[in-house]
Design a protein that fits this description.
258 residues; alpha/beta; Rossmann fold; 7-stranded parallel sheet; 8 helices; globular; binds nicotinamide-adenine-dinucleotide
Length: 258
């Protein structure tokens, strides 16, 4: 992809959660390629370290921070470390991290419900709470939260907990947008469809995966870079009047399903 000359995040401190792999990794890379100083947060230091090292080896200003977004103290410590490491307040927050387990209603256990909601909802509250003072300090900022087409259009059975969590993100975003407007902090939701990350593909056997991909209107699943480009738009000043809303990036997969 040629984004030479496109430097919308020059000097801006950008935090991306769940950045060790998949879509989060692509977002960290994209924001850094556009001049951002990127803090890559992940609960898995083992996965985060090589990801960050690979980006730094390409000259990108990316630093890794171990953080469990479900833990308020962990988030507060990470955001303080980010502020110190880059010497400037956070201007962009991308809440991408997820913990998900799929399966039928009968098999849902307490750990699945608690962990899904702790990472996917509570985590967004802690990260938002921690960055708002930093965004105020710089006169504003942008937050992008991750939902999924599964919030409104579950692709099959087994997604009750995940869909509930992702539907919660829609409400959380809207309420945050209303509350944070006075601080000039824009908050939006990105709503991806099926993206070909290792974790999403792992849910299906090869034949099912091939059939699903063939059924996509554009003949392919989304690529992490497709989502990263849309996140970069929402986080940038190009979207300065886009606030409290949802951007569906699903290659028309759910068109006509409302
Ligand atoms: N892949 C898809 O098809 C798809 C579709 C719709 C929405 N989404 C959403 O996009 C986002 C990224 O999806 P992905 O497929 O790249 O996920 P992924 O599973 O590949 O990566 C998620 C990352 O989050 C990290 N993480 C988990 N728990 C954490 C915690 N407590 N604190 C910090 N980090 C934690 C993991 O270590 C991992 O690196 C998620 O919010 C997901 O729900 C994905």
């Amino acid at each position: 992809m040629n984004i030479q000359g496109c430097r919308r995040f020059e000097g801006t401190v950008c935090v991306v959660t769940g950045a060790a792999r998949g879509i989060g990794e692509a977002i960290a890379e994209r924001l850094a390629m556009e001049g951002g100083k990127v803090a890559a947060l992940d609960v898995s230091e083992r996965r985060l370290t090589p990801t960050v090292e690979a980006m730094r080896a390409r000259g990108l200003d990316v630093r890794g921070f171990a953080c469990d977004v479900s833990s308020r103290p962990s988030v507060q410590a990470a955001m303080a470390a980010v502020r110190k490491a880059f010497g400037a307040p956070v201007g962009v927050l991308v809440n991408n991290a997820v913990w998900a387990r799929f399966g039928p209603l009968e098999g849902i256990d307490e750990e699945t419900v608690d962990r899904t909601l702790a990472v996917g909802l509570k985590g967004l509250i802690w990260t938002t709470q921690a960055v708002v003072p930093q965004m105020r300090e710089r006169g504003g900022g942008a937050i992008v939260n991750f939902s999924s087409t599964a919030a409104r259009h579950p692709a099959g059975s087994g997604a009750i907990v995940y869909s509930a969590m992702k539907a919660g993100v829609l409400g959380l975003t809207r309420a945050s947008a209303v509350e944070l407007s006075a601080d000039r902090i824009r908050v939006n939701t990105i709503v991806p469809g099926m993206v070909g990350t290792a974790s999403s593909k792992a849910q299906y056997d090869e034949a099912t995966l091939a059939a699903r991909e063939a059924a996509m209107p554009l003949g392919r699943f989304g690529d992490p870079a497709d989502i990263a480009g849309a996140v970069a738009f929402l986080a940038s000043d190009d979207a300065c009047y886009v606030h409290g809303t949802e951007l569906v990036v699903d290659g028309a997969w759910t068109v006509g399903k409302d």
